[in-house]
Every structure is written in C-alpha cells, then in structure tokens.
Design brief:
Layout (H helix, E strand, L loop, with lengths): L5 H12 L2 E2 L18 H7 L1 E9 L2 E8 L3 H4 L1 H8 L7 E6 L2 H14 L5 H10 L24 H15 L4 E6 L3 E8 L2 E9 L3 H11 L11 E9 L2 E12 L2 E9 L1 H4 L10 H10 L5 E6 L6 H12 L6 E5 L10 E4 L8 H8 L6 E4 L5 H11 L4 E6 L6 H8 L4 H7 E13 L4 E4 L3 H5 L13 E4 L10 E12 L2 H8 L4 H10 L5 H10 L5 H8 L7
Helix pairs in contact: 6-7, 7-8, 12-13, 14-18, 15-17, 17-18, 19-20
Length: about 550
C-alpha cells in the first residue's frame, strides 16, 4: 500500500494495542538511575530502553521504550533485571521509531551510563590474572558497545571516552617502575588523570597497540598507527605513537577532532583588520602564504579554515600532508609516505601535473620542497604551507638559511602569519580582578589604560576542571610583504631589521594581539606570556 512505512505500521499497531506512541523522547526524560543497571548490549539487541519507574494506582510502573516487536519478548527479563526481589513493577510499553530509539540508547548511555574509570580500574586489578587473550577479542566500532567486555578493554575504552568528553588533544601513557601514569593534554596543558598499577601495564599498553594495529610483540622499536572509534556520539580518529623507554613502552595518542579543525575564519580569533587582510590575501591567484609557529600552535586549524573558505566548484585544490588529519569535501588530499618515496617534494611535482589552482603543502622541511613551492607560486598557483619559526618575519631568514635565493623569496611570498594558541577564560567562573602594576607591566599595559582598572580571570569551577580556562583561541601576527620589505629580503637583512620594517608599517605582533585579547577579557596575562614569552624581548 502506498504511503505505508515501518514507522506508520508501528504507530498503527501501538494504537490498536492501546500502547503509547511517540516520535521522539528527550534524554532528560529518562531516569538516570535505571540506565547503568542494564547492559547496553541488551538494549541494542532487543531494541528497548527503560524510561522511568514511578508509582501508580496499581503499584510501581516501569515505563519502557520499545522500537520493535522483539522488545516485547525481553520485557520480562528487563523487569527482573531492574527489580530482582519483591513484587515486580507493572510494565507500560511506549513505542518509538527504531532509528529514534537506537540514537536515544547511545545518547542515554553516553550521558547516564558511564562507569567511573576508577571503578573499572579496581575491577581490572581483581581480574588481572585472568585476562583473556587480547588477540581473540572481536573489535567494536562504538566504545559504548564494548561496555560489557573484559575489564582491561573497558579500562582502555574509558580512558579514550573520558578524553573525548573532556576535549583532550592528547593522551599520554607513561610507564614508571611501579605504575603507568595517564595524562591528558587539555587546552595545551598536561594534567594527571589516572595511575595504573604495574601489574596492568602490559595489558593496557598492549590493548592500545592492538587497537592501532601495531605489533604487540615488538617492544624495542618505535611504532606508529591509527585508531578509529565512535565516542560521544561522533567518529574520532586517533594517531598512536609508541616508543621504548626504560620501564616499558610509552604511548601517546593524538585525538583528531574534526569539529575543532573546521571552524570558519571568522571564529578562530582574528582581529577585524587582520581578518579583512586575510580574506583579501586568500583570493589571490598566485604566490605563497606561510603560516608559522611551533607544533600545537593551531596551524592546521587555520589552513583548513582558509581552504574551506575558498573551496568552490570552480577551483581545483590539492593538498599534500603528513598526515592527512581529516578529509575535506571536494579537495584532493595526498598522504606523504617516505617508505614508497612519496615525499613532499615528489608529491608536489606530481600535483603540478594535475592542473591545480590552489596547493597546500603540509610543511616546508627542506630546500627542494621550498624551491618547488616557489616555482609553483610563480607559475600561476596559490600555495599555502607552514614553517617552524618563532615569528612571522623570521620566515624570510629561515628560507634564506635553507638556501633559497633572495629574489625568489621576495617575488613569491605574499604574507606570513605567525600564531599561538592561548587558553580562554572559562565563561562559567569568569570574574573581574584588579591586577598589580607589576603584572600589567609584564605585558606592557599602562594602568591608566584599563577600563575601570580591572581585568578578568577564571576562579575555577567543575565546568573547567578547576583550571579557570575552557577552550582555546589563536593570537596572530600578520606580516604582509611590500616593495620595501622585498628589498630588505633581497639584500639579506636580518630578521630584526625586517621585523622593525613590518612594525613601522602597522604590523601587530603576537604580543600586541595577546594584549588586545587580555583587555577584551578573552584570556589572561599569564596565558599570553606562557605561549609568547620569547617575543617580549623582540617586541
């Protein structure tokens, strides 16, 4: 019959049987005390979920969400799981579309079904001598689906899911003589979160290596791998690195969060005048634009934001990266692989035969790559890449040190953007305070320049794990080349002279931008000094 769908039939059957029917149920309606008492595997297998336990005229009433006829065959089992002794509650089925229920199960167990990592650790210690063979365990895509696995599996999954929930960028597992320390990097700073006993060391390290398809028998050599999981309701890619150290193997897991890499340019922290300049620069049809800064400064986030801004059907954009962190729709991406001689330089040569309009080179590491990139920019291609320099003007001297001819640099490089990431003040505990003159002088702020004589900082609260900070934002230094600066490059002037010329033309330094964000109440003096202290002397 036309118009009949499984949802329509399910609704009509609910009406005929006198059951309630709903198209959706918000998670806040669920009784959070019921969820941890039922294995998620049971709920998914039978497509049911306990909704609430209440008092009624007939006694206690257990409301259960059902997504398929199979749920009714398991209702009695569910009732006895929730009420093992005494009078069992009266069952009240509420029917829900299957897809809606499946999504709700994941959401409910993510929100209410978490078992504390400490509890899992205790359980793992108790069963340390009876661990199953890790190689015999069938993998699960969704961490929630592995809640009923062996304790060492659940411990590893808990470490991962907690890190994703807290928005950690890295997980460190560091073996020592009597323990394995677990640390999360949150907003750029490492915090201790867990201490795993020595007897669990081999199991937990092997578990992460196995998830990353590494050789668990090889403990003498560094290894690299990748894990793909589903946690907190989204797909997450994790890069895994293991190295041998004195007391075992040290493992670091880098969590690649797509949501943080695909921000619009307007949301990553540019000052209005810098944003206007960047928007103009990225519409050029040729030249090189460089982004500089240390590892972890947010360079990839900025470059991806730029590519997303200029990506359109009339442009051929190709990248070569190490690694390709996320797939960008409509953009060709190449993964560097030195083992098969696919380097930045060799890949770039091949890209030039693909009729590109825009090229992104993950990093200029050597003279060969630099020279090919410059030649590409001089033949009608817009090229983006990164360098490791402390500030923007130093990119000129870095290229000179690589052996690139000055005239090639001055005619190809259009601009350099230096950046760092500072932690944002937590909005939940943000409060004003009156800084001392000494504190202000460290960042070059005149006391009489302060509005009402106050700045802001975070007092520390549960929302920010008592740190006073939540999230990060960039501080930037945009250096645009013109004829005068090109002349300084051609005569091989040092970075200080090039920097001074940029300042005279209105370039705002990292410290300038950091100072602005302190005065706007976005971050603190301590944060700006933490990430850009080396720039104070040259500012």
């Amino acid at each position: 019959m036309a118009g009949l769908t499984p949802e329509t039939l399910w609704k009509e059957w609910a009406t005929s049987q006198g059951y309630g029917y709903r198209t959706s149920v918000p998670p806040d309606e669920l009784d959070p005390t019921l969820i941890p008492r039922i294995p998620i595997s049971f709920c998914k297998a039978h497509l049911l979920l306990p909704h609430s336990l209440s008092e009624g005229p007939e006694g206690r009433i257990l409301s259960v969400l059902c997504g398929a006829p199979a749920a009714f065959q398991a209702l009695e089992t569910l009732r006895h799981l929730l009420q093992p002794g005494g009078d069992p509650p009266v069952l009240r089925p509420i029917l829900l579309p299957q897809n809606a229920l499946y999504t709700l199960i994941n959401t409910a167990y993510e929100r209410f079904g978490q078992v504390e990592t400490g509890q899992i650790l205790d359980s793992a210690e108790e069963e340390a001598d009876t661990f199953p063979d890790l190689l015999s365990i069938q993998e699960t895509v969704d961490l929630l689906d592995a809640r009923d696995d062996a304790p060492i599996i659940r411990l590893a999954n808990s470490i991962l899911s907690q890190a994703v929930r807290q928005k950690a960028s890295d997980i460190h597992l560091e073996p020592f003589e009597e323990e394995v320390k677990v640390r999360y990097r949150l907003d750029g700073v490492l915090y201790n979160v867990l201490s795993i006993p020595q007897k669990l060391k081999a199991g937990i390290i092997s578990r992460f290596k196995l998830m990353a398809n590494l050789n668990i028998a090889e403990k003498r050599l560094p290894q690299d791998g990748r894990i793909r999981i589903r946690a907190a309701g989204r797909d997450v890619d994790i890069r895994v690195s293991s190295i041998p150290v004195r007391h075992g193997e040290r493992v670091v897991l880098r969590i690649l969060e797509q949501g943080t890499l695909l921000l619009p340019l307007s949301e990553i922290g540019f000052a209005p005048e810098d944003l206007s300049q960047v928007n103009r620069l990225i519409t050029l049809t040729s030249g090189i634009i460089l982004v500089t800064g240390p590892t972890g400064a947010g360079k990839t986030t900025t470059l991806y934001a730029i590519l997303n801004t200029i990506n359109s059907p009339d442009k051929n954009i190709i990248t070569i990266e190490d690694p390709v962190e996320y797939q960008l729709r409509g953009i060709g991406q190449i993964q560097v692989n030195p083992r098969i001689s696919l380097t930045f330089a060799s890949g770039l040569r091949s890209i030039l035969r693909q009729d590109p309009d825009v090229i992104l080179i993950g990093e200029i590491r050597d003279t060969e790559t630099a020279e090919i990139a410059i030649q590409a920019s001089l033949t009608g291609h817009l090229v983006f890449s990164t360098l490791h320099t402390n500030d923007a003007p130093s990119a000129m001297t870095r290229l000179l040190d690589m052996g690139v001819e000055p005239f090639l640099i001055s005619t190809s490089v259009r601009a350099v953007l230096a950046q760092r990431l500072v932690r944002r003040i937590c909005p939940a505990c943000r409060s004003p305070y009156r800084p001392s003159p000494d504190e202000l002088s460290r960042l070059g702020i005149a006391p009489d320049f302060l509005p009402e004589g106050t700045l802001f900082r975070g007092a520390g609260c549960p929302a920010c794990l008592e740190t006073g900070y939540k999230g990060r934002q960039g501080i930037y230094e945009l250096f645009v080349l013109d004829d005068e600066i090109a002349h300084l490059v051609n005569i091989r002037e040092d970075a200080a002279a090039i920097r001074e010329a940029g300042r005279k033309k209105g370039m705002k330094t990292l410290i300038d931008d950091g100072r602005r964000k302190v005065l706007e109440g976005i971050t603190t003096i301590e944060e700006v000094l933490r990430v850009a202290q080396s720039e104070i002397a040259s500012d």
